[in-house]
Design goal:
heterodimer; A: 392 residues; alpha+beta; Butyryl-Coa Dehydrogenase, subunit A, domain 1; Butyryl-CoA Dehydrogenase, subunit A, domain 2; 3 domains; 4-stranded antiparallel sheet; 3-stranded mixed sheet; 11% strand; B: 92 residues; mainly alpha; Non-ribosomal Peptide Synthetase Peptidyl Carrier Protein, Chain A; binds flavin-adenine dinucleotide
Chain lengths: 392, 92
């Protein structure tokens, strides 16, 4: 076993992310154009030991808190949306595992191994026939001679072909209800993963997320002990929305930076010709961005506090996480549209220092990644429970 | 002061004359005089920055841009000298 990693503080991790971002920036155009897995950028994150950011210190990671992870996601999002999303989804898997490690020696050991080896863990929650409904599965774990068999037709599996392991949702037994789900760790070596679809999308092309069929045999100890419903409410839903929102604000911030650089060049020319510089649009774009960034930070801080309180109200955190997701996903796109108007044709171009084309395309995925209408629908129902969430 | 330093000094003073409320007094100001203390506003300082960049054909990197840049003509000129020294490619 390798020596335990030196723990990075948040400030050190942020510096490391800024260094890695240079590699993300360099590879972003090709990653996007070729819908290629960002191998060098992920290698750079690995070299900075940033793949174990969310793993608690006792399991060899850096033990960063949710709000800190979201801040790093935004840093990376400013370099390459796809790579940042891969990193964010991976951290989410680690956080779900970390929640189970205290009661599962098997999963605790896996986390130590994943930190030491800087493993990449993918998510297999989507499934043919259930759409984007996280809390329903068709496939089930089937007991077979002390181990468990699993066959799943997943509609979207990001970086599946490059992952060291997967966290997969399934019904707990062959006769369980669709919502009686568990989350199970499947190592790449325990699975046969077959690509069954194409990934030629508008944006987030580097996440390489085609449909796959997964067939696996795993020891029963690799099932996370808590029911999936609990993991989803306490960790997967709020943290995914927080980290994704971090990535999206990072993408939008980079577009605003590009707009500011464009506006600066334009103002210089205007001053030379004696014209008045009085374009309010950069200020407006920044104002929209700032509100979104502050919402992410505030939710990050509140969710971080929530994770330390076992008895906290889960409904409130769910409703807020859903609201954050739907508003940041659409808000960031509007910010980039504002940047596009400022940069004009230079923004519309697919290349050049003032291009925001990739930003726009990447951000169109935000509203679909768990459909906003589904989340609005859930919130509309949860809000019928009472008004305390509205006032808080 | 060498020639380059003298050129930067003159360009900054001209920009202050044209783009701030300091007017002609900017030509006689002490190199170390606190520009904000004698009435430079941050909005004017942005215009001064842009017109200096335009006149010299350079782009001052983000990390050097901030309120401190305009603390005095001398400080601004020193930063420009620094940038010219480290990034000869900055000139367009
Ligand atoms: C970039 C990206 C990466 C992803 N990576 C992964 C991954 O790694 N692993 C993974 O498992 N998944 C991944 N996903 C998929 C994601 O988890 C969802 O499964 C997916 O976004 C939902 O797909 P959908 O639009 O086909 O389904 P649905 O959510 O079912 O939406 C289809 C239509 O139904 C509408 N609808 C809304 N509410 C309801 C409702 N209550 N009932 C029925 N229909 C409703 C929707 O608005 C939409 O019009 C990724 C998605 C994206 C965009």
């Amino acid at each position: 076993m390798t020596a335990p990693d030196r723990v990075l503080s948040f400030a050190e991790a942020r510096e490391a992310a800024l260094r890695a971002r240079a590699v993300l920036v360099e590879h972003a155009p090709a990653t996007d154009r070729d819908a290629a897995f960002p191998a060098e950028p992920v290698a750079a994150l690995r070299a900075e030991r940033l793949l174990s950011a969310a793993v608690p210190k006792e399991y060899g990671g850096h033990g960063l808190a949710p709000d800190e992870l979201a801040a790093l996601a935004a840093v990376l999002g400013g370099g390459c949306g796809s790579t940042a999303m891969v990193w964010a989804m991976h951290q989410l898997q680690l956080a779900c595992l970390a929640g189970a490690a205290a009661t599962s020696p098997e999963l605790a050991a896996y986390l130590r191994e994943a930190s030491a080896g800087q493993f990449l863990v993918a998510s297999v929650t989507s499934e043919a026939g259930v759409g984007g409904s996280l809390r329903e599965s068709r496939c089930a774990l089937v007991p077979d001679g002390g181990e468990l068999l699993l066959e799943k037709e997943a509609t979207t599996v990001s970086y599946g072909a490059y992952a060291d392991a997967f966290l997969v949702t399934a019904r707990s037994r062959p006769d369980a209800a669709p919502t009686d789900q568990v989350l199970v760790l499947v190592r790449a070596g325990q699975a046969r993963l077959t690509r069954t679809g194409e990934w030629d999308t508008l944006g987030m092309r580097g996440t390489c997320s085609p449909a796959h069929s997964l067939s696996a045999r795993v020891p029963a100890a690799q099932v996370l002990p808590a029911p999936f419903g609990e993991i989803a409410t306490r960790c997967m839903v709020p943290l995914s929305h927080l980290l994704w929102a971090g990535v999206w604000t990072g993408i939008a911030a980079d577009a605003v930076r590009r707009a500011a650089s464009f506006a600066r060049a334009r103002a210089r020319a205007q001053l030379r010709s004696g014209a008045v510089v009085d374009d309010p649009r950069l200020g407006r774009a920044y104002a929209s961005l700032r509100v979104l960034q502050d919402s992410v930070r505030q939710f990050g801080a509140d969710y971080t506090r929530f994770t330390a309180e076992p008895d906290a109200d889960t409904t409130a955190i769910t409703v807020r996480a859903n609201a954050l997701k739907t508003s940041v996903s659409t808000g960031c796109l509007r910010v980039v549209e504002q940047a596009l108007e400022i940069c004009g044709m230079a923004g519309y171009s697919e290349s050049g220092p003032h291009s925001v084309a990739r930003h726009l395309r990447d951000l169109h995925s935000a509203r679909l990644m768990i459909a906003n209408s589904r989340l609005d629908q859930s919130n509309s129902q949860l809000l019928l429970l009472g008004g305390s969430v509205i006032d808080a | 002061m060498n020639d380059t330093a003298r050129q930067y000094d003159a360009v900054i003073r001209e920009a202050l004359v044209t783009h701030s409320d300091l007017g002609d007094t900017a030509r006689e100001l002490d190199r170390d005089a606190d520009l904000y203390a004698i009435g430079l506003t941050s909005l004017h300082s942005v215009r001064v920055l842009l017109s200096v960049e335009d006149a010299l054909g350079v782009e001052i990197p983000e990390q050097h841009v901030g309120r401190a840049l305009f603390s005095s003509i001398g400080h601004f000129a020193d930063v420009l000298l620094d940038i010219a020294g480290t990034t000869t490619g900055a000139a367009r």
